[in-house]
Specification:
Layout lengths: L18 H7 L3 H16 L3 H10 L10 E6 L2 E7 L4 E6 L5 H13 L3 E6 H6 L1 H13 L4 H9 L12
Parallel strand pairs: 3-4
Antiparallel strand pairs: 1-2, 2-3
Length: about 160
């Protein structure tokens, strides 16, 4: 029996107690194709905040850690993903729906992914402060299992950083 390689991305449902969360996390078929097209379009037309942050994250410039932009993770397109550290960075537009962003963050956290969320205005106004906050999180030792257990407990929010 070979162990499944764990990567940040669309995961297959596993047997056992974890299957419940992961089964609802993965997408396939037409929904997956739609997400792929939308992610491709977002990579072609990034916002100013995405451009500014990608200039700092792209090409493994941030401590040699690789980030991917506009990546499909579960049923969401995340702005930036760091597969090796199980971190995603999401940028919230001024007009984004807080209920939708909370649901997306909770789903990601439930499968052990750390979510950093920043407002687009915050990134444009002070990208250096955002980078410092990302660096702090990259330096934190991370145990995916304990993060998953913490997300199962009721909490006021699952954000890894303050929203702006």
């Amino acid at each position: 029996m070979t162990a499944a390689r764990k990567t940040l991305g669309i995961s297959r449902a596993e047997s056992g107690p974890k299957a419940d969360v992961k089964a609802t996390f993965a997408v396939t078929g037409a929904r997956l194709e739609t997400l792929k097209e939308r992610a491709k379009e977002q990579r072609r037309n990034p916002t100013e905040a995405q451009k500014a942050l990608w200039a700092q994250l792209g090409g493994s410039r941030l401590g040699g850690v690789k980030f991917i932009r506009q990546s499909i993770v579960g049923s969401a397109i995340v702005d930036f993903a760091c597969p090796s550290r199980w971190i995603v960075i999401q940028l919230s537009a001024e007009d984004s729906n807080p209920d939708v962003t909370e649901l997306q963050d909770r789903k990601l956290t439930e499968v052990g992914i750390r979510v950093l969320r920043f407002s687009e205005d915050e990134v444009v106004a002070n990208v250096d402060a955002v980078i410092r906050e990302i660096n702090v999180e990259l330096a934190v030792p991370f145990d995916k299992r304990s993060a998953r257990r913490k997300s199962a407990a009721p909490a006021p929010g699952n954000y890894m950083s303050d929203e702006g």
